[in-house]
Amino acid sequence: MTAKTIIDVRSRAEFDYGNAPGSINIPLQEIPERLEEIKKMHQPIILCCASGARSSEAVQWLSRKGVNCKNIGSWRDIGCLEEG
After folding, report:
1. I need a labelling partner for 4 at 20 to 30 A (CA). Which of 13, 26, 37, 47 fits?
2. What is the DSSP annotation of 19-75?
3. CATH for 5-79, among 3.40.250.10, 3.40.309.10, 3.40.980.10, 1.20.1250.20?
């Protein structure tokens, strides 16, 4: 299996409560200030949150900045990536 970069855009408190193994927490509001760091990550980058709304917003913004990324929706759905 190839390495995947998974960014969870929920708040730190939400992330600490539960998260997908191997995911990185970058809260949505920090995405712009951490753009250069994100651009250096293995792409395509998979984004998730609680329901998919915040990660969708992050994907739209990052895509406009040239980052190859996609929205997986809820962090609980990350396991589906392992199956497919």
Report:
1. 13
2. --TT-EE--GGGTGGGHHHHHTS-SSEEEEESSSHHHHHHHHHHHHTT--EEEEEEG
3. 3.40.250.10
For the four alpha carbons of 68, 23, 32 and 41, in that order, the dihedral sign comes to: negative
Would you say 42 and 5 are in contact if contact means Cβ atoms under 8 Å apart?
A: yes
Rounded to an integer, the average pLDDT of 52-68 is 98
Encoded amino acid at 28, one letter: L
Domain ranges of the chain: 5-79
pTM: 0.91
Residue written as token pair 């995947």:
4
Higher pLDDT, 11 or 2: 11
